[in-house]
Amino acid sequence: MKINNETKIGVMAVVGIALLIFGFNFLKGTGLFKKEKHIYAVYQDVQGLNKSNPVVINGVQIGRVGNLDGGKDMRRIVVTVNLTKDVNIPDNSLAVINPNLLGSPTLEIQLGSATTYLKNGDTLLTTLSSGAFDEALKVINPVLYEVRNSVKSLDSVLHVVTGVFDPSTKNNIKQIVANLNTITSSFALSAASLQQMLNMQNGALASSLNNVNAFTANLTANNKKLDSILENAKIASGKLAAIDFEKTLDTLNIAIENFKKGSDKINSKDGTIGLLLNDKKLYDNLQSTANKLNILVDDIRVHPRRYLNVSVFGKKSKGDYLTAPLVDDTLKVIKK
Hints:
Mean pLDDT: 77
Oligomer: single chain
Number of helices: 10
Largest sheet: 7 strands, mixed
Number of strands: 7
Radius of gyration: 65 Å
Strand content: 5-15%
Low-confidence stretches: none
Distance between the termini: 170 Å
């Protein structure tokens, strides 16, 4: 089979393009046939870091910088790290950009001490690096490097002090001093008031002491009366102590017991009073007898000749006998 020249040129062009793409990705550190792990780091200043810059741990390259994206405001630059080696990176590790005076900067990962590791898509902790000038100065003149760090620290302290003593803070300090002056004035007034109160001639304390002296003088003048009152109280308490409360209580208990027995007999039907109070038949008989006596008295009053056979009155009355007592007119007269 004969292949024409156009086909050969097309195949060679496809192979060349494939080799070009493979070589370009190889130089970038990107593998075509293996899945890479991606982690991220966020900086405000990447200090000249570019794509394909190496990512190292303890001097060993384990990947390359894949992408840098700062958005539109460029305040937070997200650095994508493509890991070409399968390594365990603790989640408290730090990503530091190390500038290089003779070449491009590298991204160094300083391993942490955690036992949990970063996964695909996690974000590294970041810290600011000292910069290329500081690294060179540290090697050339360490003393000057320390002096420079001290000046930086002093500048930071002065900046903090300047921030603290801003106009509002100064006004607050002035107000505090004014308040202290007011407090000292109040203390002075309080001291004057206290001195006036402690004045031995016309002070409040002197007046109170005079009142106490007058009270104690009255107690001294009435000492005999107080002694007499206390003596009377002592005699009364002695008489109360001499009373035989136990015997009195026993007598009272006996009287209560006798009263209880009497009330029991009254309530029972054995005694006379109990029968009078509790026997209804006896009550009915007494009521009937009283009614008959009333009839008899009324009959004697109305027909005395039946019961008194005296010739002075004439013949003996043989009228009808009363069967019910008459109405007592004396009660009406009394009521009038």
